[in-house]
Amino acid sequence: TWKWVVGPMFLYLCERLVRFWRSQQKVVITKVVIHPFKTIELQMMKKGFKMEVGQYIFVKCPAVSRLEWHPFTLTSAPEEDYFSIHVRIVGDWTEGLFNACGCDKQEFQEAWKLPKIAVDGPFGTASEDVFRYETVMLVGAGIGVTPFASVLKSVWYKYCHDATNLTLKKIYFYWLCRDTHAFEWFADLLQSLEAQMQERNNADFLSYNIYLTGWDETQATHFVVHHEEEKDVITGLKQKTLYGRPNWENEFKTIAERHPGSRIGVFLCGPEGLADTLNKQSISNSEADPRGVHFIFNKENF
């Protein structure tokens, strides 16, 4: 038995040593941004750090806990000179990080007072394959939008530097939220990308649909009153916020008709129930003919 065990154990120990060495490398917090509804953005720098879109890292803050490591999706783009994460304050550890960064204080926080951070990663996810397709569907549920923030930022940078060799030609973006709390920090990115596409006469590159799933009668009335305005009153985007949940069967059929004979990447970051629905739709709307349309499903659950 030991002959079969010693090899994997040796590889496991090597992997743990590499991760320990990597986590000991110095990380500098360059900026802390407080977003609405207790969401903070940590912008960091680390020597030799290289990332791809949609990847994630493990973060430890010894000032909060010496042993706890927590995974966070990177929200920055590879083209930026820093890497960032967005942290929603929803528990004891995130509350401790919020306080350690001085976000509970009104006065300006000096850089040397910011806590030490250990980072392990980055680690790959399915979202890395986005740029291998000409057409993609990006589906984010709630905070599951974070890997697509990295993707859309990267697209924005590529278009700023003339994206003539970009394989990706069309993005269908879906964001499902129970309330409006998550819109504030992400809507700015969509507004910038929307303006960039219009300047380059490529407004059709990004089709986005934002669904508010946890709406009440007051919000519905508000929606009716302001529906005729040029921009949406919640996000500030030209595309109006939709209420309820998408009809996935209709969405898949419509996209299949628009892109016959294409391989369409479907990327999800969301709950398992939604993953089952999208997987079934990807299978049922793919044609048996190799020359027909095919939906390739990729998921990242939380």
From TrEMBL:
It catalyses: NADPH + 2 O2 = 2 superoxide + NADP(+) + H(+). Its cofactor is FAD. GO terms for cellular component: monoatomic ion channel complex; NADPH oxidase complex. It is found in: Cell membrane. Pfam families: FAD_binding_8 (PF08022), NAD_binding_6 (PF08030). Keywords: Cell membrane, Electron transport, FAD, Flavoprotein, Glycoprotein, Heme, Ion channel, Ion transport, Iron, Isopeptide bond, Membrane, Metal-binding, NADP, Oxidoreductase, Phosphoprotein, Transmembrane, Transmembrane helix, Transport, Ubl conjugation, Voltage-gated channel. One of its GO terms (biological process) is superoxide anion generation. GO terms for molecular function: metal ion binding; superoxide-generating NAD(P)H oxidase activity. Residues 19-129 form the FAD-binding FR-type domain. Gene3D superfamilies: Nucleotide-binding domain of ferredoxin-NADP reductase (FNR) module, Translation factors. It is a multi-pass membrane protein. InterPro entries: Cyt_b245_heavy_chain, FAD-bd_8, FAD-bd_FR_type, Fe_red_NAD-bd_6, FNR_nucleotide-bd, RBOH/FRE, Riboflavin_synthase-like_b-brl. Catalytic subunit of the phagocyte NADPH oxidase complex that mediates the transfer of electrons from cytosolic NADPH to O2 to produce the superoxide anion (O2(-)). In the activated complex, electrons are first transferred from NADPH to flavin adenine dinucleotide (FAD) and subsequently transferred via two heme molecules to molecular oxygen, producing superoxide through an outer-sphere reaction. PANTHER family: CYTOCHROME B-245 HEAVY CHAIN, NADPH OXIDASE. This is NADPH oxidase 2.
